[in-house]
Amino acid sequence: MAFEGLSSKLQEITRKLKGKARITESDLKEMLREVKLALLEADVNYKIVKDFIHSIEEKALGQDVLKSLTPGQQVIKIVKDEMVELLGGTESKINFTPNPPTIIMLVGLQGSGKTTTAGKLANLLRKQGKKPLLVACDVYRPAAIKQLQVVGASLGIPVFSNENSKDVVHIAKQALNVAISKLNDVILLDTAGRLQIDEELMNELKNIKKEVKPHEILLVVDAMIGQESVNVANTFNEELGIDGVILTKLDGDTRGGSALSIKKVTGRPIKFIGTGEKLSELEVFHPDRMTSRILGMGDVLGIIEKAEEAFDVEEAEKMEKALKKKELDLDDYLMQLRQVKKMGSFSSLLKLIPGMSQIKDLKVDDKEFVKIEAIICSMTKEEKKNTKLLNASRRRRIANGSGTTVQDVNKFMNSFEATQKMMKKMQNDKGFKNLLKNVNPEDLKKFKM
């Protein structure tokens, strides 16, 4: 995962700081040296690292931090604030025109994930109440148009293409007329990429910009190529002029330094990040939340947003009733499991919980939850309602039916029984009930780490 190496190193440094009652100037310099090495190993631009460290040192020494009662915490706060600033400071949104349709032009090198990202962005904007139209402007790459059509069909989002024309400016203008007639308020132009930046590519993009006048030009950059992504962003910005960056493949084995360098080098913000292969795995980029994740402080707001997106009102009410029952059965358990799965992988969700990323050797295999689902689905209605019926022969039948072992079934049932006991305790705990009554969801949304 992105930032994993950097994150673990920075979290180790902050743990050392928290454990110190007093911090000397030499302690601070040693900590900053470790931070510097961690950032350089993560492929962050050397000049940016140098300025970043200098700024932290200046603030830490200039505010009598070392003489305060909680110097470690204050230094950590300075590191966090500086990193938020480095990543862009605040969330940068798409500028929608008051006179639709808003035209968004996606550009980038071949292999950066433009076509898939076009679908992801269309899907995200639709969830925000927009009516997007995808436009196939890549007329060179074999099957590029077909790929966009497949993506659009899987999402139920219309795709405009003209396979009889190689004139991308003409295609874009045709798409504009179609969008106006069909009342699409957002047009996403999926333009052609190249294996490297060349004059022909730039001229074509400049022609589209001149004739179609897009409201937003977003550069799609592969985070896996490291520091080269910063050079690509810089060149596109100087040649074409971009409004923001979409950083893809942040779920891959990458050091993440490009994300920490792009805003500072180009002056253009990261607006979205791709966090997985699914068409739902594109997120708005929040510098403060990303910093919290890197430093192991979690992302409570991120969890709330994922939950709001995954759960509809009817399903939430069903789950609430299930949780209020005196006896949690396997149907309730399966319903909850499936709802949580909609929010993403369990391992990715755990990383959003404050402190969880600091637990060493914390591993969650999502395949285990597939096993659990298979085990429950192999039971009869009576067995799901009353687990006391599960004798040895029934457990063998369930194991055979679910493609698991009897040991797997026993392991899950032990875990489920422990969950049942915990739920009973929570139901009987008046203090817990009162706590739940007083929780205001709106207050949770305002909560920031």
What's the short version?
The chain folds into three domains: 83 residues, SRP54, nucleotide-binding domain (Four Helix Bundle (Hemerythrin (Met), subunit A), Up-down Bundle); 196 residues, P-loop containing nucleotide triphosphate hydrolases (Rossmann fold, 3-Layer(aba) Sandwich); 144 residues, Orthogonal Bundle (434 Repressor (Amino-terminal Domain)). 57% of the residues lie in helices and 9% in strands. The chain has 21 helices and eight strands.
Question: Can you put this structure into words, describing what you see?
Answer:
The C terminus is likely disordered. By secondary structure, the chain is α/β, with parallel strands linked by helices. The two termini are 22 Å apart. It contains 21 helices and eight strands. It is flat and about 75 Å long. It has an eight-stranded mixed sheet with strand order 3-2-4-1-5-6-7-8, with helices on both faces. Helix 6 links the parallel strand 2 and strand 3. The longest helix is centred in the last third of the chain and has 23 residues. Helix 5 runs parallel beside helix 6. The protein folds into three domains: 83 residues, SRP54, nucleotide-binding domain (Four Helix Bundle (Hemerythrin (Met), subunit A), Up-down Bundle); 196 residues, P-loop containing nucleotide triphosphate hydrolases (Rossmann fold), CATH 3.40.50; 144 residues, 434 Repressor (Amino-terminal Domain) (Orthogonal Bundle).
